[in-house]
Every structure is written in C-alpha cells, then in structure tokens.
Amino acid sequence: MLGRVQGHVLRVAVAGLGAVGLKVAQALDQGLDGLALAAIAVGDPAKPRPELDRFSRKPAVLPLAALEPAADMVIECAPAALLRAIVEPFVARGKTAVVMSCGALLENWDLVETARRNGGQIAVPTGALIGLDAVTAAAEGTIHSVRMVTRKPPRGLLGAPYVLAHGIDLAGLREPTRIFQGSAREGAKGFPANVNVAAALSLAGLGPDRTMLEIWADPSADRNMHRIEVEADSASFSMSIANVPSENPRTGRITALSVIAFLRKLKAPLRIGT
C-alpha cells in the first residue's frame, strides 16, 4: 500500500487514455509532489500516440499485462470490462488501484478481499459527485434512506445495455423522460458507463441494494445532473451538481479533476476532507 513507499517518489500508472486518463496523465507529467508518471496502458501500444508528444517526459506505453511491475499505483480509466485485468495484479501484490469504473467493482467484489488479504487498497475518488464525505460520515451512525436522481442529455445514454435491451428511442424524446428506476446495483448493470457515481454513493452509505436510483433522459439538458437526498439519524441533507460534459458525453469534466485532487493529497502536508 501507500505506506510502503512513503518518503519516496510514487510511480503511478494510468490505464486508459480517454477523456479522464489523458487529463490525469497530463497533470502527472506537469508535476504532482512525490508522484511520477511511470507508464500508460492502452489497447494497442504500437499505435502512435501524438497526444504524448508534448509530455516533458514520455512514459512507457505498455499493454495491460505488463503494467503492474512498472508502477506502485494504477489509475483505472478504462472501459468497465477491463477493471479486473487492471486492478487485480496491483492489489494482489499489496499495491493501490484507484478505480473509476465503480459500477464494475460491484460485479468484482472479490477484488476487495484480494486487496485485504495482500495488504493492497482499492480507492474510489469522489468523481462527478459531491457529498461523499457527508455520506461516509453519516454511515458511522445510521442512514435511513439514500435516493439519487440523475438527468443526462440523451446522447450521453446512447449504447447503454438497459437502453438497448428495452428498445428505448432516445433520439425521439421531446421532453424529460424517466427511463430507469431501481437500485444502484441494477443501475450499474444497465448503465455501466453512466452511473459510476451511483455505485460510489452506494458504497459510501447504504450499499448498492438499498440505494435508490432514477435516471432521466432530458433533451433540454446540456449537463449531467445529479441530485442526492439522504435521511440519517445524524442529519438530513440534499445535494445537487450539474457537470459540464467532457469530450466523452458520458463523463463530466470534473471527474478527471477529482482524480487529480485525490493524487495531490497523497503527499500533501495538508489534507482537506475526510
């Protein structure tokens, strides 16, 4: 885990070079105290990567299978189907994996036991959500209910398994339409690229089966919007956020910034937040 490399430069690998992975890699290249970008994993390492030409120090570009020996920590920024291949080698060797595909983690929960058994750690940043600190604090007492309502432009929901399975015509929508209502676990299965925030919220509080989720496709929306309502014995609170989409309409710009903020805290002399 992190404690094994305290006082030394922490070698960081980024798995995936999409909207989030590239931003995180750029921040590491520009400099985060005590951290160094050691490697990037992509599907085809032989493919030219012009986006890396402006890096001050070009990292190794590797296949997933070669990533673990090159780094002390991995940032998973890849499609959800690759989560196990990225995370397992690191946590099995007592290292840290920062997970963005939190919904896929629900389907690979044994990785948490692998991390526990080997002294590794799986870390889930706040991502495109707010208030996880408040929810984790409330969970030290008793949380009665957690409800999340997500509204997204229809194009940000294209290709979701739930949408395809139910034949939902997103292009034909003319008004806000609720297309899903159920648990966070069900939502993560049906929308693996869209509601990682709901999975993270569920892990912070009541769990994926008791955290309730609604997903709305809203043709008038130009941002990804989330509203959370929590009832607990310590507090009742609600939170809303409207995220500006990144180059990938499924992902808000703040998601990459959340990872960068997480990394900056690792060696910082002052840390804010739980």
Provide tags for this entry.
Dihydrodipicolinate Reductase, domain 2, disordered N terminus, 2 domains, globular, alpha/beta, 6-stranded parallel beta sheet, 5-stranded mixed beta sheet, 274 residues
Please explain how this structure is put together.
This protein has 274 residues and is an alpha/beta fold. It folds into 2 domains: 139 residues, Rossmann fold (3-Layer(aba) Sandwich); 119 residues, Dihydrodipicolinate Reductase, domain 2, CATH 3.30.360. The strands form 2 sheets. Strands 3-2-1-4-5-6 form a 6-stranded parallel β-sheet, with helices on both faces. The N terminus is likely disordered.
Fold topology:
Layout: E1 10-15, H1 19-30, E2 35-41, E3 60-62, E4 73-76, H2 83-91, E5 96-99, H3 102-107, H4 110-118, E6 121-123, H5 132-138, E7 143-152, H6 161-165, E8 177-183, H7 184-190, H8 196-204, E9 211-217, E10 224-232, E11 236-243, H9 253-266
Parallel strand pairs: 1-2, 1-4, 2-3, 4-5, 5-6, 7-9
Antiparallel strand pairs: 7-10, 8-9, 10-11
